[in-house]
Amino acid sequence: MNENTDPLRLEIAAAAARLLADGASDYASAKRKAAQRVLGERAASKGSMPDNEEIDAALLEHLQLFDSGHAERVARRRRAAADLMQRLEEFQPYLTGAVWKGIVTEHAPIHLQLFHDNTKDVQIDLLNRGVDFDVASMPHFRGGADVEAITFWMADAPVLLSLYRHDDLRGALKGARGSGAGPERGDRRALLERLGVAP
Questions:
Q1: CB within 8 Å of 35: residues ≥ 6 apart
Q2: Domains (ranges, CATH) in the chain?
Q3: Measured between alpha carbons, how far is 166 from 32 in angstroms, rounded to an integer?
Q4: How far apart are CA 29 and CA 121, in angstroms?
Q5: Position 179 pLDDT exceeds 50
Q6: Does residue 177 have a pLDDT over 50?
Q7: CB-based contacts of 169, cutoff 8 Å, min separation 6
Q8: Strands 93-96 and 185-186
Q9: Which helix (H) or strand (E) holds 113?
Q10: 179: nearest Cα among 17, 62, 52
Q11: What is the rounded (10 degree) CA torsion for 4, 10, 11, 13?
């Protein structure tokens, strides 16, 4: 995040962070609602809108200040993600999103991206394990056509599986390099390192 960010951007980022902490479902809608709350009827200039990194920083600060269970929730959901990744190992799971970043509201799902060419195999595996799931779609992380998404609950945590073709993995790993914010996703070994556990 830019240390010279103007106060208006910081105010909108903080408002968006509060909305996300209270259950807003995505950054784009939280950002729009936050801008409306801060600016009222005035239109937001492009330069006054915070980016996702700025919102992440504000959200982490908010959770550290006002959510005493945040650190334990991060650890608990990361452990649950590691267990689930082991069970879904054949589908090449990568953890992404809030649990990977360590900025976990109560509503944030364990988001695994699976890289496997047959989405039906994933569904059959879940059915064989007795998992009751819903199927929807979500935007591809690189843009373009939507991908299949599976949602279910595991203990006290919502789970989101987004299903990609095996060829998408190369683009996912390439896109993770060189980002100032760190990698956008990690495999089970990388997650265990964040947990301080030997693979």
A1: 12, 15, 44, 48, 49
A2: 7-66 (no CATH), 70-195 (3.30.460.10)
A3: 34
A4: 33
A5: no
A6: no
A7: 92, 94, 115
A8: antiparallel
A9: strand 110-115
A10: 52
A11: 160
Q: What is the pLDDT of residue 137?
A: 96
pLDDT in tens, 67-124: 999 999 999 999 999 999 999 999 999 999 999 999 999 999 999 999 999 999 999 9
Number of residues that this document lists for the chain: 199
CB 10 within 8 A of CB 49: no
The set of residues, in sequence order, having a beta carbon less than 8 Å from that of 101 and lying 6+ positions away, is 56
Q: How many CB atoms lie within 10 A of CB 175?
A: 14
Element (H, E) at 192: helix 188-195
Read off the pLDDT of residues 141-170 as tens digits, 9 standing for 90 and up: 888 789 999 999 998 899 999 999 999 998
Sheet holding 110-115, edge to edge: 134-138, 147-154, 157-164, 110-115, 93-96, 185-186
Is the CB of residue 138 less than 8 Å from the CB of residue 152? no
Q: What's 58-91 look like in SS3?
A: HHHHHHHHHCCCHHHHHHHHHHHHHHHHHHCHHH
